[in-house]
Amino acid sequence: MVHFTAEEKAAVVSLWAKVNVELVGGEVLGRLLVVYPWTQRFFDNFGNLSSESAIMGNPKVKAHGKKVLTSFGNAVKHMDDLKDTFAELSELHCDKMHVDPENFKLLGNMILIVLATHFSKEFTPQVQAAWQKLTAAVANALAHRYH
Amino acid sequence: MSLTKAEKAIILSMWGKISTQADAIGTQALERLFASYPQTKTYFPHFDLRPGSAHLRTHGAKVAAALGDAVKSIDNIAGALSKLSEMHAYVLRVDPVNFKLLSHCLLVTVASHFPADFTADAHTAWDKFLSIVSCVLTEKYR
User: What CA–CA distances, in Å, run from A25 to A72, B6, B27, B77?
Assistant: First the structure.
């Protein structure tokens, strides 16, 4: 089980309180699809993904990004209990969506980078480190029930 | 994987801005690397790695200078970094996985310094550029 120090929890929780989940969620998913275009394989029914502007403006991308990041908010509330919190989602990603867990790492890094663009100087190396730990732990939790 | 004309243009123009703070950016990327991925410190037992240390600043400047060389010779990165590639293969022997970690921390640093410029397209260009640099630095490993 991943152990978060009091400082790490504080860094995550305080930044999360300022995150516009709808906006950031859309940007995170959009960047994933732009920077790593092979990830578009999971979203054949999303319509126009033909360019950066098409992807970043795509309403389905924004809606799904919001959904994903809202779910991530659950991780912030249950940092000591991630494997159980994401057990069901893990099975879903394996059995229904057939997503290679490598993609969880890619998405995690997109979260980090979008947070960096939004929070700039506030996104110090220490704050980043706490968030790296969280995204890695969520990635592991989502992969945990794979078989 | 190679850079398109548009991607090269993005990198060249952004480097113009980045180069005015190149040393600080190289240094901060290393600070972020050691904070997020403590295992990377094992390559620097001989350094004082505390934030602000002279070692970190000197090494950060070196990293930034090498990236600048790659940008200036963007059509021949392998040529520009040939000596550095040999050094990594025969002397430093940094495990290849670590190039991805430093590349990510460089992206985070640039993103936090230049949020308006770091669009998804710019992000893609830099991600590709750093992948190419990483490939060049590991291509003589075996």
Answer: 10, 27, 30, 35
Assigned token pair, B122: 């710019």
Q: Which amino acid is at A146?
A: Y
- Whether ipTM > 0.90 holds is no
Positions of chain B with pLDDT under 70: none
Ranges of each domain in chain B:
5-138
Distance CA A61, CA A67 (A): 10
What are the Cα distances from residue B102, in Å, to A24, A43, A91, B10? 24, 30, 32, 21
Half-sphere exposure of B68 (CA within 13 A, CB side): 16
Return the ∠ at Cα B100 (arms to A9 and A73), rounded to 5°. 30
Cβ proximity of A38 and A44 under 8 Å:
no
| Residue A21 in contact with partner chain B when CB distance is under 8 A | no
Beta carbons of A113 and B107 less than 8 Å apart = yes
In CATH terms, the fold of domain B5-138 is: Globin-like (1.10.490)
A123/B contact by beta carbon, under 8 A: yes
Token pair belonging to B116: 């308006």
CA dihedral A135→A139→A144→A147, nearest 10 degrees, is 180
Residues of B with Cβ-Cβ distance to A120 under 8 angstroms: 112-113, 115
A105-123, pLDDT tens digit by residue? 999 999 999 999 999 999 9
Q: Choose among B14, B28, B44: nearest CA to B102.
A: B28
Radius of gyration of chain A (CA): 15
Tokens of A115: 């947070």
The mean predicted confidence, pLDDT, of chain A is 96
